[in-house]
Amino acid sequence: MRHLIIGNGAAGNAAAHAIRRRDPSSEITIVSDEPHAAYYRPLLPYLLHDAPEGRHLFRDSLHLPRDVTVQLGARVQAVVPDEGRIDLDDGRVLAYDRLLIATGASPSLPPIDGVPGPGSFVLRTLDDAVTLKASMAAAGPSSRAVIVGGGRIGTKVALGLRHLGMAVTIVEMLQWIVPQQLDAAAAEIFQEALQSQGIEMIFGRTVRAVRRQDGRVRGVILDDGLELAADLVVMATGVRPNAEIARTAGLATRRGILVNRFLQTSHPHIYAAGDVVETTDIVTGEPIVSGTWTNAVFMGEVAGENMAGGSREYPGAWGLLNAVELAGIPVISAGLVHPPLEGYDVRMRRRERAYRKLVFRGGTLVGFILVGEVEGAGVYTAIIRERVDISPWKEALVEKSTCAPFVRTLRRFPEVYAA
Ligand SMILES: Cc1cc2nc3c(=O)[nH]c(=O)nc-3n(C[C@H](O)[C@H](O)[C@H](O)COP(=O)(O)OP(=O)(O)OC[C@H]3O[C@@H](n4cnc5c(N)ncnc54)[C@H](O)[C@@H]3O)c2cc1C
């Protein structure tokens, strides 16, 4: 059996491991358009200021079994499902029996005059990080950076640039930072921390244009006409799935590639996993394109196992399940953190730099945000995933972060796939 995997990121890499575990002798080939071995993408912002975290970029868990062939620096141009082959941009053709499309996502750029262009950057790949770092060095520590988008990536990049002494402003179109993951109260804790480090934030505004003079960025013009002086601009405005090759091949797609519960696409020999897939939110049942490492790894494992003859079902993705540390403060959010006004019981508690928000629907927990004190997150996650009726313990859960009484009610604890 010839297994072919497009993409050597979280999903592709996990799939290769899963196939090899189940099938010791089949042929496995990974094709990646990046020239590097697999790396842990969430650490890229730490490379910008040489933070110690960056040393773990090439995590041991990403090392592939020796008998997996990896074609680096090769871009797949076309998938031809009826002939079971892919065409590479260097003219080579590779045949497969089972194919996994794990092509991830690319930065999505809103329509802004002057973007893309010299002095405007994105951060998705290791090469992006190297390019941005070189430009930061050329611009010098007293230069000014504007980060467009105050999400997880924008905020991490802002911290990295500020660390090097640059003057940094984040422009976020919503009302607070990391708006998908945090509510206003949680964001306030981080905003105070960012402000204390000298990072400026502008909310409720979008960027209309990047102004250049003599080919160099001089400023960023907001939708209200205000101009911010800038020497470089980093676009951190979200991602879009790399689903073009699937679309052109005639596979079913919407925003991402559509899959069944075995992560099989509309062609039975082709699977898909990771950021490129459109799946179902495990909590809300809504279609989502998940952009988290943990989801990508889990999907890769399930797809790989099924490519090798298994029949493991994928339960759906966490639209939100993310553990990050921003400005030295840990935060974990999962499930529904911005519930509609009606039909939900929302409990919040803030104590200095710690915050806890629990969202209940009837007797079940459907979402949470933990800032500062993140103990118990794995158990909360399991409670949500297993839809445990916690009515008898709801008040205790609100009062204390300890979850011991609930643990025995969980079927699969501690096998929680929280980060
Ligand atoms: C700066 C940054 C910070 C992040 N922080 C977090 C975090 O804190 N927590 C979290 O959970 N997630 C985080 N993420 C998101 C996380 O990294 C992704 O969800 C995860 O990498 C998705 O894995 P994937 O395998 O689906 O795709 P990717 O990791 O994107 O891998 C896809 C690979 O396929 C390659 N490829 C695409 N098209 C082709 C083609 N035609 N031919 C050959 N190769 C191709 C791509 O170049 C890429 O190498 C972060 C991402 C970034 C960029």
Show the helix and strand layout.
Elements: E1 2-6, H1 10-22, E2 27-32, H2 44-47, E3 68-72, E4 76-80, E5 85-88, E6 93-95, E7 98-101, E8 105-107, E9 120-121, H3 126-139, E10 144-148, H4 152-163, E11 167-172, H5 184-196, E12 200-203, E13 207-213, E14 216-222, E15 227-229, E16 232-235, E17 239-241, H6 244-248, E18 257-258, E19 270-272, E20 277-280, E21 287-288, H7 293-307, E22 321-326, E23 329-335, E24 345-351, E25 354-361, E26 364-371, H8 377-385, H9 394-399, H10 404-407
Helix pairs in contact: 1-7
The chain binds flavin-adenine dinucleotide (FAD).
Most strands sheet: 5 strands, parallel
Q: What do the pLDDT scores average to?
A: 91
| C-alpha termini separation | 33 Å
User: What's the total number of strands?
Assistant: 26
Q: Which class of secondary structure composition applies to the elements?
A: alpha/beta
Helix coverage percent of residues? 10-25%
In CATH terms, what is the architecture of the largest domain? 3-Layer(bba) Sandwich
| Main sheet: strand order | 3-2-1-7-19
Q: CATH superfamily of the largest domain, please?
A: FAD/NAD(P)-binding domain
Number of separate structural domains: 3
Strand content: 25-35%
Tell me, briefly, the overall form: globular
Low-pLDDT ranges: 412-419
Hetero groups: flavin-adenine dinucleotide
Radius of gyration: 22 Å
Q: What is the highest CATH level, the class of the largest domain?
A: Alpha Beta
What's the CATH topology label of the largest domain? Answer: FAD/NAD(P)-binding domain
